[in-house]
Amino acid sequence: MKITHVFFDLDRTLWDFDLNSYNTLLDIFHDFSLKDKGIKDPVFFIEQYIKINESLWGLYRDDLITKEDLRSRRFYQTLQEYSIQDLQLAKDIGDAYVKNSPLQTVLFPHTIEILTYLKKKYSLSIITNGFEEVQHIKLKASAIDHFFDHVVTSEAVDVKKPNPIIFQYALDKAKVSAKSSIMIGDDLPVDILGAKSMGMSHVFFNPKKNSHSQKIDFEISCLSDLKNIL
Question: Which of 25, 71, 106, 177 could be 16's S-S partner, Cβ–Cβ 3.0 to 4.6 Å?
Answer without folding.
Answer: 106
